[in-house]
């Protein structure tokens, strides 16, 4: 290779701007390349966040294995076998194996690193809590589940399956985050554990292990039920909560006019009180996107129902074997109303010889 090209290459590697467009094509041949940029972006982000030091400050191959699995999971989630192959010098998918010196890693080594990581879980969570939670913090908590293919997991049980995988056992896990959604702690439960039963251990974890007594728990109505509020939250000094109400509870408040729907004509956020919720502040927010979606779905259901109504009217008016009798007509109409749950949106008039319907437009537009 000419000395000029070698000198220019040295300058380029040092960051200098050198034009080599004429010499490179004649002196270089690309044999193979490894995708690299995304690997370094994620690795440097991990270092900037300090996550590598939170895992452990001591450099080791095990630490690199853990970092490698984190980065691989972000780039392209795969099984541990496929991840190890992606590190390998002969079957690599990017530069990750080379950067972290994991080109000889195998599946068993990755699983051993996970065993090491689980032994450090409490320490890692404690560090994250110290960094991101204080007295008075919002604590976000939610629960989900994932199904299992194998049968070796002791926590795998049949339960409410969010994945809609019939015949599969599952595990349930709860995730604690700070107000910005940064994960703090995770806990795995048996697959038949209800969402409501996971909350107690999380409250104890934040208070006893993290040493934070004054927090505001933010979670959904399926977890923070009225019984959990009464038994787990209200008796403990320093605990507050933010949650949602069930649709039935919201409907009840609207029916007794605790929520004045007319206020939403001027503002999208309303604060009010109700005797059904003593010592609690209720807030109602109108979401125009959800309102538009609901209106579209409602209109579709009404049109389908009205097509069925017209078929009933035709059956009443036909010459042969006409549908007669108020009882029989009402039965046919009731089947349509019950199927689509839209009876409150209509004024109906049923007689022995006829049937008419009219939309309650004011109610529909609410």
From TrEMBL:
One BP term from GO: DNA transposition
PANTHER family attached to this UniProt entry: PTHR34614, TRANSPOSASE IS4-LIKE DOMAIN-CONTAINING PROTEIN
Domain spans labelled Transposase IS4-like: 138-254
Pfam families: DDE_Tnp_1
GO molecular function per UniProt: DNA binding; transposase activity
Protein name: Transposase IS4-like domain-containing protein
């Amino acid at each position: 290779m000419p000395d000029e090209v070698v000198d220019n290459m040295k300058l380029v590697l040092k960051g200098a701007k050198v034009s080599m467009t004429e010499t490179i094509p004649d002196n270089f041949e690309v044999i193979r390349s490894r995708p690299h940029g995304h690997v370094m972006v994620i690795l440097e982000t991990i270092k900037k966040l300090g996550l590598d030091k939170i895992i452990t400050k001591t450099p080791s191959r095990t630490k690199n294995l853990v970092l490698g699995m984190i980065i691989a999971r972000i780039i392209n989630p795969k099984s541990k076998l496929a991840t190890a192959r992606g590190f390998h010098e002969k079957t690599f998918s990017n530069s990750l194996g080379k950067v972290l010196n994991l080109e000889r890693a195998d599946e068993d080594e990755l699983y051993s690193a996970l065993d090491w990581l689980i032994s450090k879980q409490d320490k890692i969570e404690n560090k994250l809590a110290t960094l991101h939670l204080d007295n008075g913090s919002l604590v976000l908590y939610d629960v989900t589940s994932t199904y299992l293919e194998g049968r070796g997991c002791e926590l795998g049980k049949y339960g409410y399956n969010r994945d809609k995988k019939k015949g599969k056992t599952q595990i349930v896990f709860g995730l604690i985050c700070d107000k910005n959604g940064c994960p703090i702690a995770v806990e795995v439960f048996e697959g038949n554990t209800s969402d409501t039963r996971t909350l107690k251990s999380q409250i104890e974890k934040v208070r006893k292990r993290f040493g934070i007594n004054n927090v505001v728990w933010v979670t959904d109505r399926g977890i923070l039920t009225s019984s959990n509020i009464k038994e787990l939250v209200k008796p403990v000094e320093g605990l507050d909560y933010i949650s949602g109400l069930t649709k039935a509870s919201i409907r009840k408040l609207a029916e007794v006019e605790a929520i004045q729907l007319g206020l939403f004509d001027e503002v999208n956020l309303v604060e009010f009180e109700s005797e059904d919720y003593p010592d609690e502040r209720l807030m109602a927010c109108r979401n125009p996107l959800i309102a538009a979606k609901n209106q579209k779905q409602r209109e579709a259901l009404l049109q389908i129902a009205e097509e069925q109504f017209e078929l009933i009217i035709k059956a009443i008016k036909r010459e042969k074997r006409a549908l007669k009798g108020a009882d029989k007509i009402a039965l046919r109409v009731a089947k349509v109303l019950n199927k689509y749950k839209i009876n409150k949106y209509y004024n109906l008039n049923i007689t022995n010889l006829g049937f008419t319907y009219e939309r309650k437009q004011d109610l529909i537009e609410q």
